[in-house]
Amino acid sequence: MIQLLDKIHHKDSKNFFLIAGPCAIEGEEMAFEIAEKIVNLSDKYKIPYIFKGSFKKANRSRVDSFTGIGDEKALEIIKKVGEHFNIPTTTDIHENAHAELAASYGVDVLQIPAFLVRQTDLVVAAAKTGKAVTLKKGQFLSPESMKFAVQKVLDSGNDKVAIIERGNSFGYTDLVVDFRGIPTMQHYAPVILDVTHSLQQPNQNSGVTGGRPELIETIAKAGIAVGTDGIFIETHPDPSCAKSDGANMLKLDLLDDLLGKLTRVREAIL
């Protein structure tokens, strides 16, 4: 998929590729601060990079949870980030109409959320835009079952597809990553390990999702060691103030050290 994205940099570096950014677009200044930091790091370590930001948060625990600053406003910010830094962008979509809407703002990669990955109409709508499509593996699905989601994209005439691993449900309030699934799913498409969402602790009694960010480095190193194609990390200058998923995000100033370590792991296994 990476080789088919026009604006991706460092395609020939043999490094893993990175999808990173805030959970949700909170404003233009914040989005540009995060993007600039990661662009500089991606150049430093020769990492192909895709900026990620959700224009709308639809899967929320409570009706009063933050859902966004407005669809068009957030998409315009994502568009500006992509144009300013000349990098590809990605956002998640939740309804069929969102596919064309996001595509119209120049989003390069449409992400299908884990809970919606079996929704055929949504997957097909994303594929038919001609944009690249990433399919988050449902927490309730086996690695083998993802071949059918991939096939829906291929059958729609689109070969720009990848799978995102984000852990499996482990009881009611925890997730666990089964690293055996990564090579299995690589038979169907490139695989990206969503490090930060794999460390969520959903369904807390408070109605606010928890997380284990202290394990981000552990999960990320393991993913690179088993040969995952890409890494997905949500990051924020101050996760404690983030309006969405702050409990499992990486503090932005910790990203440099982490990417350096992951690059060295990658070099060791090549």
Automatic annotation (TrEMBL):
SUPFAM superfamilies per the UniProt record, alphabetical: Aldolase (SSF51569)
Highest rank taxon of the organism: Bacteria
Name of the top EC class for this enzyme: transferase
EC number: 2.5.1.55
Subcellular location field: Cytoplasm
Major localization class: cytoplasm
One Gene Ontology CC term in the entry: cytoplasm
Domain named DAHP synthetase I/KDSA: residues: 8-264
Biological process, per Gene Ontology: lipopolysaccharide biosynthetic process
Reaction it catalyzes: D-arabinose 5-phosphate + phosphoenolpyruvate + H2O = 3-deoxy-alpha-D-manno-2-octulosonate-8-phosphate + phosphate
Keyword Cell membrane: no
Keywords attached to this entry: Cytoplasm, Transferase
Pfam families to which the protein is assigned, alphabetical: DAHP_synth_1
Residue ranges crossing the lipid bilayer per the database entry: none
Entries under Gene3D superfamilies matching the protein: Aldolase class I
GO terms of molecular function: 3-deoxy-8-phosphooctulonate synthase activity
Functional pathway: Carbohydrate biosynthesis; 3-deoxy-D-manno-octulosonate biosynthesis; 3-deoxy-D-manno-octulosonate from D-ribulose 5-phosphate: step 2/3; Bacterial outer membrane biogenesis; lipopolysaccharide biosynthesis
Cytoplasm listed as a keyword: yes
PANTHER family according to UniProt: PHOSPHO-2-DEHYDRO-3-DEOXYHEPTONATE ALDOLASE
Protein family: Belongs to the KdsA family.
Protein name according to UniProt: 3-deoxy-8-phosphooctulonate synthase
Gene: kdsA
